[in-house]
Each structure stands twice: as structure tokens, then as C-alpha cells.
Write a structure and sequence with these properties.
The chain has 79 residues and is of the alpha+beta class. It has one helix at residues 58-71, and strands spanning 5-12, 19-24, 27-32, 44-48, 51-56. 18% of the residues lie in helices and 39% in strands.
Length: 79
Amino acid sequence: MCLGIPGRILDLGEAPLHFGHVAFGEVVKEVSLALVPEARPGDYVIVHAGTALEVIDEAAAARTWEVLAQLDPPREETP
């Protein structure tokens, strides 16, 4: 089973490489956008292994983040 994580496209690189910067909360990664040529800055995408697989809407991204948070709730730091 593969796990795709939603992220928001910040910017697009220059063709023909089809890379862009995608934000996953506060973390920003360079991601291949070759499989989603219709994607634009501000769009949400599902990313697996550094490649965006599909464009999703903001509500779907939020629901996915909620489920992921339930699977791994934030931990309190111990001194």
C-alpha cells in the first residue's frame, strides 16, 4: 500500500522539467508535477515518492490531514 500526502503548490518550475515547490504544512519540498500538467500554484495535489499523482480540492486535502492527524497525534515534548 502506498501513502500519498496532500500538499499545496507554491510555484512551478520551468518546462520541460515540470517541477514545483509544494508545501506540506511548514515543510516545502521540490516535487515532480509531470503527471499533473494542469496543476497551478494554489492547487492541492496528492504526492507520493516526490511525484504529484493527482490534483484534489482543498476540502479533500483538509479531510486527509484530519485522518493523518488521528493516526499520529502530536506528541508533547518532554524536558
